[in-house]
């Protein structure tokens, strides 16, 4: 007998998460406590409930630039090794509580050196937090693997340095590289040196593209930079013509994206908040999934979007009528697209994801 698709039941399903920002997923209470502990006095309020509301409403702006503004407060309290370790550990605990079995969590080390830490020390603190979070989750009976993506800010000039950081830590928890930040005016081709460095070292990377900016951003990320995945990539829908009979014609960029199986790290709630799409019901996720693009479900920023993987999946279920087999497909899509070795991906798919979904599907 098939298990009903409720939030509580979806919370029991195994999940794979590829696009989650460490500084966008703090617990509101932790922000308040760290601000008090380390003397950060910039918070708009120290009331935990009011602060949670502030992050949610400030982020729901209809603009990527305005959406990013509240991050000044989370980054502001993450300037010591102790704070970074705590945030990373709690991140793993929260994901494990939502039955996430694999996650790649990203953050920009260059944003966390105002307190005098080196880039290496920043990464070491986060990786230690992830490792301790995995142990804490295991003690609660939850198995989760968390790996790190180091991100360079696209408006800055440290991308090569951050790419080198990714390679230095590649065997101890960092599995890839990313660029993020406001897209308009900061094309990915400004960072070709970093991407070339990653390719020369046989390393993987994803690029935020096609969220606030359109097809040119995706074109550059794929054709010039050689991205393995696209962060968001939602505007690829602009290269797809849907006909009255529900058939569709793909443009050359959309075709190559699908033909090469380049994964899309789609973040439904966040895409609505930033104005990339008007609503969940109008999100091109359903069209892209129907056309067999490699779509994945992601949270982006759990604090800002007041969301979890289970809530993102439920919103898709409610909007598009998906069943357990669809959620399984999206989860396997994500696991196939992860940056860990093939055998590790296959083990999680065959020994964790498929068996647990089989129970839910009935």
Structure in words:
- Pfam families: A_deaminase.
- Its EC number is 3.5.4.4.
- With 362 residues, this protein is α/β, with parallel strands linked by helices.
- It has a single domain, classed as TIM Barrel (Alpha-Beta Barrel), CATH 3.20.20.
- The protein has helices at 7-10, 28-38, 48-59, 64-68, 71-76, 81-97, 119-139, 159-168, 192-200, 215-224, 252-259, 268-273, 285-290, 309-320, 324-336, 342-361, and strands spanning 15-21, 100-107, 145-153, 174-180, 205-209, 229-232, 240-242, 248-250, 264-266, 295-297.
- The strands form two sheets. It has an eight-stranded parallel sheet with strand order 1-2-3-4-5-6-9-10, sandwiched between helices.
- A hairpin with a 5-residue loop joins β7 and β8.
- The protein is globular, with a radius of gyration of 19 Å.
- The model has no long low-confidence stretch (mean pLDDT 95).
> CATH topology, what is it called?
TIM Barrel
The CATH superfamily appears as Metal-dependent hydrolases
- Report strand %: 5-15%
DSSP helix fraction: 40-55%
Secondary-structure element string: HEHHHHHEHEHEHEHEEEHEHHEHHH
List keywords for this structure.
362 residues, alpha/beta, TIM Barrel, two-stranded antiparallel sheet, 10 strands, 47% helix
Can you summarize this structure?
The protein is built from 16 helices and ten strands. The chain has helices at 7-10, 28-38, 48-59, 64-68, 71-76, 81-97, 119-139, 159-168, 192-200, 215-224, 252-259, 268-273, 285-290, 309-320, 324-336, 342-361, and strands at residues 15-21, 100-107, 145-153, 174-180, 205-209, 229-232, 240-242, 248-250, 264-266, 295-297.
């Amino acid at each position: 007998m098939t298990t009903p698709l409720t939030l509580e039941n979806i919370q029991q399903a195994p999940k794979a998460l590829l696009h989650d920002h460490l500084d966008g997923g703090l617990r509101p209470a932790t922000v308040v406590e760290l601000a008090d502990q380390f003397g950060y006095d910039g918070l708009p309020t120290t009331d935990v409930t009011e602060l949670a509301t502030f992050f949610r409403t400030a982020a729901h702006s209809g603009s990527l630039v305005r959406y990013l503004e509240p991050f000044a407060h989370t980054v502001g309290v993450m300037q010591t090794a102790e704070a970074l370790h705590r945030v990373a550990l709690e991140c793993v605990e929260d994901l494990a509580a939502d039955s996430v079995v694999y996650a790649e969590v990203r953050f920009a080390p260059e944003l966390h050196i105002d307190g005098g830490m080196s880039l290496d020390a920043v990464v070491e603190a986060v990786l230690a937090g992830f490792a301790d979070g995995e142990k804490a989750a295991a003690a609660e009976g939850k198995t989760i693997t968390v790996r790190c993506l180091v991100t360079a800010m696209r408006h800055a000039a440290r991308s090569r340095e951050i790419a080198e950081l990714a390679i230095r830590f590649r065997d101890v928890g960092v599995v890839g590289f990313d660029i993020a930040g406001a897209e308009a005016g900061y094309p990915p081709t400004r960072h070709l040196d970093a991407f070339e460095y990653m390719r020369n070292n046989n390393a993987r990377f994803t690029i935020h593209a096609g969220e606030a900016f359109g097809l040119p951003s995706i074109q550059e990320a794929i054709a010039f930079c050689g991205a393995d995945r696209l962060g968001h990539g939602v505007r690829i829908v602009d290269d797809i013509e849907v006909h009255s009979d529900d058939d569709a014609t793909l443009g050359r960029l959309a075709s190559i994206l699908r033909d090469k199986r380049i994964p899309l790290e789609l973040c439904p709630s966040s895409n609505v908040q930033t104005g990339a799409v008007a609503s969940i019901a109008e999100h091109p996720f359903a069209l892209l999934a129907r056309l067999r693009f490699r779509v994945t479900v992601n949270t982006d920023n759990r604090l800002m979007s007041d969301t979890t993987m289970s809530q993102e999946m439920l919103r898709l279920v409610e909007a598009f009528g998906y069943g357990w087999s669809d959620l399984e497909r999206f989860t396997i899509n994500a696991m196939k697209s992860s940056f860990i070795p093939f055998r590790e991906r296959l083990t999680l798919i065959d020994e964790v994801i498929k068996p647990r979904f089989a129970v839910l599907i009935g």
